[in-house]
C-alpha cells in the first residue's frame, strides 16, 4: 500500500495550497494551472534574489498555464521584512512562508532528485500535470526554463 504525504504551504496572507504526494503524483490544491514551478529560495541568497525578476516575467507571460510557488527555506527573515522584500521585488507569484512545511517538503524531495538534504539554493522543480518534469539547481537562464515550459505545453497539447 502506498503512503500519502501532505505539505501545507501557506503565505503571510493565510492563503494556502495543500501539496499531496502519492505514488510520485503531486497534487497542488487550489491550483488550476497544469504547470507548477516550485522554487526553493532564501532572501539572503544572491542567486535566489537574482532570479526573482525572471520568475516574475515567466509568471506574467504564462499566467494561464503556469503557477510559480516560491518556498522560503533556511531564512530567519521576519514577516514584515519578507513583505517588504516581496513588495520591493514586485513578486507576482505565491510565496509560502511556512518554513516548517517548506523544509519538510525539501527534505522529502531531495533524495528523489538525488540531492543532499542540505542542497544548494536556489532549487527549482517543474511539475507538469502532477508529475515531475525536470529540476534546476543553481542559477538558470530564464530562456532555459521558458524552453522547458514551452516543451511541456506542447506535450500537454499533444495529449488533448
In brief, what are we looking at here?
The protein is α/β, with parallel strands linked by helices and 160 residues long. The protein is built from four helices and eight strands.
Structural category:
alpha/beta
Largest sheet composition? 5 strands, mixed
What's the CATH class label? Alpha Beta
Number of domains: 1
Low-confidence stretches: none
From the coordinates shown, what is the CATH architecture? 3-Layer(aba) Sandwich
Helix content: 25-40%
Straight-line distance between termini? 31 Å
- Identify the quaternary structure here: single chain
| Count of extended strands | 8
Could you say what the CATH topology is called? Glutaredoxin
Query: How large is the count of helical segments?
Result: 4
Q: Over the alpha carbons, how many angstroms does the gyration radius reach?
A: 15 Å
Secondary-structure element string:
EEEEHEHEHEEH
Spatial strand sequence of the major β-sheet: 6-5-4-7-8
Name the CATH homologous superfamily: Glutaredoxin
Percent in strands? 25-35%
Mean pLDDT across residues:
94
Written account of the structure:
The chain is of the alpha/beta class. The chain has one domain (4-159): Glutaredoxin. The protein is built from four helices and eight strands. The chain has helices spanning 46-61, 79-88, 99-112, 142-159, and strands at 4-10, 16-22, 25-28, 35-41, 66-72, 94-96, 123-128, 131-137. The chain has a five-stranded mixed beta sheet. It is globular. The mean pLDDT is 94.
Amino acid at each position: 500500500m502506498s503512503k500519502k504525504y501532505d505539505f501545507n504551504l501557506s503565505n503571510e496572507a493565510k492563503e494556502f495550497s495543500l501539496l499531496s504526494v502519492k505514488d510520485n503524483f503531486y497534487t497542488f490544491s487550489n491550483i488550476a494551472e497544469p504547470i507548477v514551478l516550485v522554487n526553493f529560495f532564501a532572501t539572503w541568497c544572491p542567486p535566489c534574489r537574482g532570479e526573482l525578476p525572471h520568475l516574475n516575467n515567466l509568471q506574467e507571460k504564462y499566467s494561464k498555464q503556469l503557477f510559480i510557488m516560491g518556498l522560503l527555506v533556511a531564512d530567519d527573515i521576519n514577516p514584515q521584512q519578507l513583505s517588504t522584500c516581496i513588495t520591493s521585488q514586485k513578486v507576482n507569484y505565491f510565496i509560502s512562508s511556512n518554513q516548517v512545511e517548506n523544509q519538510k517538503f525539501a527534505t522529502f524531495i531531495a533524495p528523489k532528485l538525488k540531492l543532499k538534504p542540505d542542497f544548494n539554493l536556489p532549487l527549482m522543480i517543474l511539475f507538469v500535470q502532477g508529475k515531475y518534469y525536470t529540476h534546476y539547481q543553481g542559477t538558470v537562464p530564464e530562456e532555459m526554463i521558458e524552453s522547458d515550459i514551452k516543451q511541456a505545453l506542447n506535450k500537454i497539447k499533444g495529449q488533448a
